[in-house]
Amino acid sequence: MWIPTEHEKYGVVLVSFRGTVQHGLPLEIGDTVQILEKCEGWFRGFILKNPNIKGIFPSSYIHLKNAHVKNKGQFETVIPVEDSVITEMTSTLRDWGAMWKQLYVKNEGDLFHRLWHVMNEILDLRRQVLVGHLTHDRMRDVKQHITARLDWGNEQLCLDLVPRREFSMVDPDEISVTELYRLMEHRHRKKETSAPASTHHLFVHVKSLMSTNLGEELEVFFHIYDGRENRPLSERFFVKLNKSGLPKSPEKTERQCTLFVDLGSSDLRKDVYIVVHIIRIGRMGAGEKKNLCSVQYRRPFGCAVVSIADLLTADSKDDHLLKVYACNTESEWYQIHENIIKKANSRYNLSGSNTGLAVALQLLHGDIEQLRREYMVLFTRGVSITRKLGFSDVIMPGEMRNDLYITLEKGEFEKGGKSVARNVEITVYVLDIDGQILKSHVAAGSGEPGGDEYHSLVLYHNNSPRWAEQIKLPIPVDMFRGSHVRFEFRHCSTKDKGEKKLFGYSFVPLMQEDGRTLPDGTHELIIHKCEENTSLADCSRYLKQPFSKANLPSNNQTLKGTKESFWITSFLCSTKLTQNGDMLDLLKWRAHPERINDSLSKLKEIDGSEIVKFLQDTLDTLFGILDESSQRYGLKVFDSLVHIINLLQDSKFQHFKPVMDTYIESHFAGALSYRDLIKVLKWYVDRIVDAEHQDHIQQVLKASEYIFKYIIQSRRLFSLATGGQNEEEFRVCIHELFMSIRFFLSQENKSTSPVAQTQAVFLRTFPAVYGELLKIFTVREVAGFVRETLGTLPTAVHADCLEAVKLQCIAKTVESQLYINPESRCILLPVVLRILQAHMQEQRDLVMCARILTSMLSLIKKEENGTAEPVVSEEVELIVESLLGVLLRTILEISNRPQPAGPAMRLQFQDVTGEFVACLLALLRQMSDRHYEQLLQAFNSKDNLRDFLLQIFTVFRILIRPEMFPKDWTVMRLVTNNVIITTVLYLSDALRKNFLNDKFDYKVWDSYFYLSVIFINQPCLQLESFSPSKRKKILEKYGDMRVMMGCEIFSMWQNLGEHKLNFIPAMIGPFLEVTLVPQPDLRNVMIPIFHDMMDWEQRRSGNFKQVEAKLIDKLDSLMSEGKGDETYRELFNSILLKKIERETWRESGISLIATVTRLMERLLDYRDCMKLGEVDGKKIGCTVSLLNFYKTELNKEEMYIRYIHKLYDLHLKAQNYTEASYTLLLYDELLEWSDRPLREFLNYPMQSEWQRKEYLHLTIVQNFDRGKCWENGIILCRELADQYESYYDYRNLSKMRMMEASLYDKIMDQQRLEPEFFRVGFYGKKFPFFLRNKEFVCRGHDYERLEAFQQRMLNEFPHAIAMQHVNQPDQTIYQADAQYLQIYAVTPIPESQDVLQRDGVPDNIKSFYKFNHIWRFRYDRPFHKGTKDKENEFKSLWVERTTLTLVQSLPGISRWFEVEKRELVEVSPLENAIEVIENKNLQLRTLITQCQSRQMQNINPLTMCLNGVIDAAVNGGLARYQEAFFVKDYIMNHPEDGEKIGRLRELMFEQAHILEYGLAVHEKFVPQDMRPLHKKLVDQFHLMKSSLGIQEFPAYVRASPVHFTNGSPRTCRNSVPNIISPDGGRGVARRSYPAVNRYSSSSLSSQASNEVSNITGQSESSDEVFNMQPSPSTSSLSSNHSASPNVTSSAPSSARGSPQMAEKHKHSRENACLSPRERPVSAIFPNPLDPAQRAPSHQIGDTTLPRSDPNLSAPDKVRPTPSSWSLDSVKEGPPSFSDSFGKLLCPPVPPRPPYSAGSSAKNMRSQSPVTSRSPQKTTVPPFTPSPTECQSTSLVSNSPVLSGSYSSGISSLSRCSVSEASGTELPAGDHPSHPLPPSTTLPNSVSSSSDEPIRRENKTPPPYSVYERNNPRRPVPLPHSLSIPPQTDPPALPPKPHQLRTGSMKLDGTSDPRVPRPRPLPRKVSQL
After folding, report:
1. How many whole angstroms separate alpha carbon 1655 and alpha carbon 1885?
2. Which SS3 state, helix, strand or coil, does residue 524 take?
3. How far apart are CA 1641 and CA 1434, in angstroms?
4. How far is the C-alpha of 1463 from the C-alpha of 1750, rounded, in Å?
5. Which of 219, 395, 1095, 1356 could form a disulfide with 279 if both were Cys (CB 3.0 to 4.6 A apart)?
C-alpha cells in the first residue's frame, strides 16, 4: 500500500534506472527527485527538472538528503537542507555547462579553456566541502575561494551579480532593500576597485655570481637605501657564496631568500635603491700568489645597485642580472653605492665585463598575514625576514623587538712606528655584566645566524679607514643592563706569517646608570692602546676608564689630545627600552615627588613611540598621582590623559586603542577618579563660550569618548566597592555636565567662530559616549539625554561645516546600539526626522542623508520579522509622513542634475541616487494598505494629490531606466519592479476615484500609461531572453510582472470611456510596443485595445486615418529594433478581424488590418535579411520591396526617403554604383530647384532645396561615373550646368563642362563589360514574402556567367532546390513548404533602336543602348510539333519564344526586377530557317567588310566562317531545308507559306552569292600557308553550288550591286579599327568583327571547323582567356570552338554547363554544335545565345532554331512581305539598282539593308519577315539607304562595318527606302505595320525634306544636347574627302541622353505607358 512519506522527501539518484516496469520513471545518475509516496522498497515521485511526469522507482537507487518542506500537501515544495554555497555551486555549474559549450561553438577558445579549469577547480572544492572533514578556518578559506571563482565566472559570462553575506546567497525578500543595495554595491565596488595596499614587501632570492676571476668565497650584503637622505632604510641581508659563486647552503632556502618587510608606499619611489655589497674572503691582494699563510681577510670586491621603482613595472618574479662595479681606490669603498647612484664614473668601473649577480626580485603587497596565506609555499619552504631600521608605519601592540644596530663608520690611527700605513681589522664582541662574551649575539645581517664575534673589512695600507659596515646586536632586554660592546683593533701583516697584531681597543656600555640606553647617533670612541699580548679577559679593569671623547672630564687632556679615534653610529629599535630621561623621570615619580610638575609638563614633548611603549605604566602613573594629589595635580593629570588619548588617534598608534580599552577593563583601579574627571571636564565645558582660545578645549572634547570611559569605569568600580553609594550625587553630576553641554551647543555662531568649531568637535565624538552611558543608565534615560542634547542644536545654523557634522552625528546615532533598541528609537526618531527633513528639503549633504535613511530603513526591515509589529508600523507611518514627498523630490532633483565632471564625483553622485532609490523602495515595500490609505487621505486638495501622483510616476520611470543600476544587478531590478507594480496597483485606485469623468486629468493618466508601457518593455523583464533556470526562478518568485501590468492597463483603459479619445493617436505607438513583447497572454490582453481605438476614432471623425498613420509609423521603427515576429502578425490579424466582424465600418477596418499586416510581412522579411552578414540580392530586393510599399501603397514620404538612403548604402557596400545612382535619383526627383529651406534630415545639414539637389546631382554623377554609366551622368551634368549658367556661376559651370567632357572621353576610351541577364523564379512558401512565387530578371555581375550566378543564388538561399527544367511550375510547387529556384539566361531586347541602327556609331556608344533601359527579355525553347521526321528534323522543329516584360527597366534601383507580363508565341520551322540564314548572311557580310577595311588583324575569323558555312552546306545543311520546304508536299499543304518559301530560296541564293564574293576577298588576303585550305574551300563551294542547283545566279542577283560603302563622314571619322574592345575581356572578338550570328542553318559538321581551328591556331581558350585577338568564327553549329565564351543559353539549364545537369549535357556549345537530327529535343538544350546578339523580340535571334515574333496573331505571322529582292518584285517592278551601278567585275554582295528600327546595330541581326509589333506612330521622316558606288578597281571599303547599320538580317535587303513622296511614313524605330505595295519600291531617290541639307552635313551630331532637341545645328562644312554624294539620305539624329530617363530617367519626356505611374507624393513644407 502506498503511504505518503514523512521524512523521505528529497534524494539524489545513485544508479540509472530505465523505468521498464509499469508506471516506472526513468532516472539518470545525478538527477534530483522529490518523493511523494513509498511502498515496500519503492518510491513514487518525480524528477525536479520535469515535475509533470510522475512514476515509481526503487528506493535503493536513491540517496536521501535532508530537506525542508513548504506548503505540505498537494502543492508542497521541497528545499534541500544543505550549505547554501553548495546549492549555489550546483545550480551555477549547471548554467555554466550549457554556456561553456556555446563558447566552443563561438570559437572563444581562451575563455573556454579558462572556464573549464575553473569549473574543475570548483568541483574539486565542492567535494572537499561535501566530505566535511575540513577545519572551521579551512572551510572558511575554501568557501571564500569557491565564491571568488563563482563570481569570476559569472562576470566573464556576463551573468548576474549575486548578493552574498558570509559566502551565502541572500534572499532579497528576507532583507531590507537598503541592505540589499549595500551588499550589491559592496560586491560591485570590490569587483571594480581593489584598495591599494599600504604595506609592501620585497622578495629577494640570490641565485649566483657570475665572474671569470673568482676562486675565493664571497659574502653578499643586500640592504635598501634612501638616495634622497643618503641613509640605509633596512638592516642587511647576508648570503655566503662558495668559490663558484653559488650559495654555500643550497638546501637551506632561508639562507638565500629574504623578505624585506614593512616598506611604506613612500618607499616605492625612484630614489630608493637595493644596494648590494660583495666582500671576498681571502688574501690581501686579489692577484697575490698563494703563500703558506692560511690567514684570510675580508676584502672589498664590488657593488651593485638597482632602483626599486624599476620593479614596479617588471613582470612578477623576474630574474635580474645586476652589474657589479669595483671602486678605483679602496678609500672610496664606503661610498661606492652613492657614486654609482650619482653616476660618478671616474670613481668606479665594471669589475669585469662578464661579472654579474643573478637575483630574483619581486614586490609583494599587503600585510604579512595576507602574504602568509597567499604565498604559503614561500613561508613553508623558508625565508628570512629582513626588517626596517626602526618601526614600521603602523606599530602593533604586542610587537616585541629589541635590536641595537651599530655601524662601524671610520677610524683615525697613527702609523705606530711603521713606514707605511696599517691594514686595520676590527673585531667586535658583546659582553654581559659579568664580562662573559654573549654567544650568537653579533649578526652581520639576516639570513645567516649570529656569531660570537664580527670581523670587519680590511682596507689596505689605510690609517684613516672608512668601513660603513652595519652590524646587528639582538640582545635580550634583561641582559642590556651592564652589557657593553668591545672593539679590538689589529694590524694585519702581509708578510709570510700573515699575523694579526692587537694594538688597541675601544668599548661602549649599552645602558647608562639611570636606566637610559645608549642614545642614537654617532659616537667618537677613545682608542685605548695596548700591547700585542694584552689580555682583555678581565673587563672590569678597562670599564672604569672613559669610553667616549664626549664624556671626558675637562681635565683629562691626555686622552682628549690623542689623534686616534674610532667613530660608530648606534640606533636602537626597542619596544621595551627607552633613551628618554623625561619618560624615566615620570615613571619614577615616587622617587622624586618634587619633579612631578616638570615631568607632567614634559610628557607632551616626549615622542609618541616612547609613550606607547610604556602605555600601561604611564596611565598607572597618571591615575596614581591623581589619587594622591588630585587638588594639586588634577588639571595637569587630566591634560596629560587627554594628550595620551589624542595620541592614540594618530594613524601610527591607532592600533594601541585596544591596549587602552583592555587597560580600562582589566587594569584601571581609580575608583575615585570619576569625580575629578567630571569636575575638570565640566570646568572646561563651562569655559567654552567665554574662552578666546579654543584649541585646548577642542583637544579635551576630542578625547571625551575615553574620558567618559574612565568616568563610567571609575563609577562602576566605586559602586562595586561601596555597594552603590552616592548614586544620586553621580547622576546629578552627569545631568549638570549635560546641561553645560546643551548650553554651549545651543549657542548660535558663525561658521568661522571658534565656538562653532568646538561644537563641531563635540558632535563628532558625542555618539561614541552612548555605549558608555548605557552601562549605568537605562535605554530611555540615555535616549532622553541624546534627544535633549541634539534638540538644543539651533535649527537655522549658519555654519556649513557644523551642518555636516550635525548630520554625521545623527548618522552615528542611527547606527549606534542605542538606536537599534525599539524603546529608544521611538524617542529619537522625531528628532532624527526633523533634522533629516530640513537637510533634504534644502538639498544639502545628500550623501550623509542617504546614509542615515539607509540605516533607519534597514533596521525597520529587521524588526518586521520580530514581535514589535505595531511599533514598526508606527515608525513607517512617521517616516512616510515626514520624508516620502521630500524623498521623491530629492530623487527627481538629483536625476535631472547635470552629471559632475570628475570620475570620483560621478561615482559619489551615482551612489547617492542609488541609495535614495533603495530607501524609497524599502519604504514603499514596508507600506501596508493602511499606510496607503492614510497617505492618500492626507492630501487636502486634488492638486496636491495630482502633483504627488505625477511625481511618483516620474520617479518610477527614472527607476526603470537601464542606467539606474549596473547591468548585472538583475536581483535589484526585479525587487524594484516588484515594488513598483505593487505601488501602482494601489495608486491606480486613487486615479480612478479622483481623476475620471468630470474630474478627468489628462496629464496624470498620460503619465500613468507611459509608466506602464516602459515598465513592460524593460529588458530585465523579458523572460524569453533568460536561461530556463533563471526564468523559472523569476516566475516562481514574482510571476510574469508584464502580464500583471498589461491587465492593469487594459482595466484602466476600459474605465476611461469617452476620454479614450484624448489618447488617440498618442498612445497607439506605446501600446503597439507593448503588444510586440513576445508574451502571448500580454498580446491577447493588449491587441483588442486597437479595435477600441479604431471604434472611437470612427465615431469621432468617421474614419481612422490617424490610427492607421500612427500604426504604420511606429511599426517600422519598432520592428527594425528587433521587436515582433510572425506569430504576432498572425495574432494581430486574427484578433482584430474577429473583433470588427460586427462593426458597421467592417470594410475599412479589414482594409487597414490588411495594410498593416502586409507591412509587417515586409518589415519582418527586411529585418531577417538585414541580420545576414554580407550585402546580397536578398537584402537589396527586400529593401526595394519595402521602399515601393511605402511609396505606392502607404504614400509615406519620409519613410520612403529613409529607405531610399538605406538602399543606397547597401548598393555602395556591394559596389553596385549604377544602382546606387538610380536609387539616389529617386530622392533627387522629389526635390526642385528652389530656395525653400529644408530641415536637417538623416546626414543632410539644414540647407536650401537647391543646395541639397545640387549635392545629390554631384553624388549621383560620381556614382554613375564609378558604375561606367557615363551617358546618364552627362544628362545630370547638363542639368547642373544649366543651373550654374542661370545663376552666372561660371566657375562651377566651367568645372561642370569639364566633367561632362571627361565623361565623353571615358565613353570613347574606356572599356565596358556587357552584362548577362538571368531569369530567376522563386517558388514555394519558404521564401520571404517579397520573393514568394514570383519571377525576376537579374542583371549579373561583371564576368558572371550562368554557372557562377546559379552558385551565387544557391549560396544566398542555401536551403533552396534548383529546378532542372524551364517549364512553368504547377501549384504543388507554389504551395510547397520548401524553396525552389528556377534559373536560366535571357536575352535583352533593347528599346533604343534609332542609335543601334545608325551607321558609323562606334560600338562603345552602341553598347550602352544595348544593355541599358531594358524592359523586355526573351528566351527560346525548341520543341517538335507533330510527328518527328527522323530523316529531317527541321520539318517539325518549332520554337516556343517567351517575352518577359518587367515592372521597371534594368538597370534601375535594383539588380533585379519582377516580371510583370509574360508573352508566349511559337515560331514555325520555315520562319526559323529564314531567320537562321538571314543571320548567317549578315555575319558573312560583316566579316567580309571588316576584312576589306582591315579592321581584322588576321583573316582567321573569315576563314573559319566561310569554312563553317561551305562545309555545312556541302554536307547537306541547306539541302535539308530544300528537302523540308521546297518539296511539292509541303508547298501543297502550306499554300500560305508561298512567300516565305520564296524568301528562303532567295536567301539561299543570296548566301551563295555572298560566299562567292567572300572567297574572292579571302583569296586576296589569305596567307601562303593557308592556301591549301582556301583551295579546298573553293572546290567545296562549287560542290555546294551544284548541290543547290545553281549554275548561274539569277538575274536579280547578278544585277544587284555590292554595297560596301566608301566612307560617309561618320564612317571615316570612326574608321580606326576597333580591335581592343572597351570591355576588356569578352567583348573583344565581337567588336573586332561583329559576328552577328555564329550559327548556320546548315547541317553543321564540326570536323571541318575543328580542322580550321587547328590550322589557324585558334581555340576556345584563346578566345575566352586572352581575348586580345579576334576569335575565329564559323557556323555556330559547326564547332564548339566557334562560339565566343559569351554564348549563353537563352533557356536555362545547362546551356553553359549548369551544375545541375548530367555530365553529358554540360557543355552547351557542344549541344549547339549538333546537327538538327543529332540534337536531343529538350528544353535542356536551348539555343546558345551570344550577349552581343541581343535583339528585340520580333527580330531574329542568333540560333539555328526557328523563331518568330511573339506579338503577332497567326494570320500576321504568315503574311508575306513584298520585297524589291523577291521574285515578284522583279516581275512587277524595274530593277532598282542596275542602272545606277552597271555591271561589276567581281561577284557582288547583295546590298546592305536600309536603316531599320528595332535591330541592334552592333550585332547586325537579320530582320524577321513579319510586321512590326508596335502600334505607336511618330512623324520622323523615313530613312533611305545611302549606298555608294563600288568601283571595280576598289573592292575594299574603308568603313568599319558593312557600310553602316543593318537591320537584323538579310531580309532587309529586300526593302528599298521609302521616300516622303510616297505618302507613307514609317513609325520611328519600327517596321511598316502593313505590307507595302510594290509601287512603293522606288529607285534611289532624294528626300525632299526641308532639313535634309543640315542633316546631310551633320552625319553624326553629338548625341547629347539639352537645347537642340528641336533646333537644327549650324551647318559645319566638311573636308572634301568626307563629303557625301547629294543623293544620300542620312538617318535621323540619334536621341539625346536627357531623353533617356524612364521612371527615374526616361528616354523621352513622356512616361512609358507600360508602367503604372505611382500616385504623386504630396509636397510638405517640411520637405525632407
Report:
1. 47
2. strand
3. 10
4. 7
5. 219
pLDDT, tens digit, for every residue of 1452-1484? 999 989 999 999 999 999 998 998 898 888 888
Cell of 784: 532622553
Contacts of 897 (CB under 8 A, 6+ apart): 909
Tell me the torsion sign for CA atoms 663, 666, 669, 674. Answer: positive
Residue holding cell 604559503? 376
The yes-or-no verdict on residue 1741 having pLDDT over 60 is no
Q: Is the pLDDT of residue 38 over 50?
A: yes
Other CB atoms within 10 Å distance of the CB of residue 591: 9
pLDDT recorded at residue 1298: 96
Question: Which helix (DSSP H) or strand (DSSP E) does residue 453 occupy?
Answer: strand 453-455
| Distance between CA atoms of residues 655 and 641, nearest Å | 18
- Binning the chain into helix, strand and coil, the percentages to the nearest 5 are 50, 15, 35
- Contact between residue 542 and residue 508 where contact means Cβ atoms under 8 Å apart: no
Rounded mean pLDDT of 499-525? 86
Return the bridge partners of 298, or none. 281
Contacts of 43-50 with CB under 8 Å at 24 or more apart are: 43/5, 43/8, 43/11, 44/2
Q: What is the mean pLDDT of the chain?
A: 76
Kindly report the length of the chain: 1968
CA dihedral of residues 1125, 1130, 1132, 1138 (deg, nearest 10): -170
pLDDT confidence of residue 1012: 95
Q: Which amino acid is at 630?
A: S
Confidence band of 591 (pLDDT split at 50, 70, 90) = low
* CB-CB contact of 1830 with 1603 (8 Å): yes
In this prediction, residue 1453 carries a pLDDT of 93
408: pLDDT strictly greater than 80? yes
Which is it for strands 466-473 and 402-412: parallel, antiparallel or unpaired? antiparallel
Cα(1670)–Cα(1629) distance, integer angstroms: 4
Residue 40 in contact with residue 96, Cβ under 8 Å? no
The residue that leads in pLDDT, 1617 or 229, is 229
Q: Is the pLDDT of residue 274 over 90?
A: yes
Chain Cα centroid distance, residue 1172:
17
Q: Is the pLDDT of residue 1750 over 60?
A: no
The residue behind cell 521526321 is: 1429
Q: Count Cβ atoms below 10 Å from residue 854 Cβ, excluding itself.
A: 24
- Rounded to whole angstroms, the Cα distance separating 185 from 191 reads 10
Measure the CA–CA gap between 1659 and 1500, rounded to whole angstroms: 11
607-658 pLDDT, tens per residue?
777 777 777 777 887 888 777 766 777 788 888 888 888 888 887 777 777 8
Q: Is the pLDDT of residue 370 over 80?
A: no
CB contact at 8 A, 1593 and 1478: no
Chain centroid offset of residue 260 CA: 46
Please report, for residues 958, 963, 1078, the alpha-carbon distance to residue 1073 in angstroms, rounded to integers and kept in the order given. 19, 21, 11
SS3 699: helix
Pairing of strands 1414-1424, 1247-1248: unpaired
Could you tell me where the beta strands, DSSP code E, fall in 1451-1492?
1456-1467
Residue 1782: how many CB atoms within 10 A of its CB?
A: 11
C-alpha cell at 1423: 520543341
Q: Which residue has the cell 651593485?
A: 304
Distances from the Cα of 1311 to the Cα of 296, 1276, 1372, 1614, 1900, angstroms: 96, 22, 47, 17, 22
Nearest to 303 by CA among 322, 287, 324: 324
Burial string for 679-691 (b: 16+ CB within 10 Å, else e) reads bbbbebbbebeee
- For every residue of 1599-1628, DSSP letters joined together read H---------HHHHHT-S---S-TT-GGGH
- 225: nearest Cα among 319, 338, 331: 338
Name, of 662-671, 1265-1274, 1942-1951, the range with top average pLDDT.
Answer: 1265-1274
For residue 1747, the Cα-to-chain-centroid distance in whole angstroms is 59
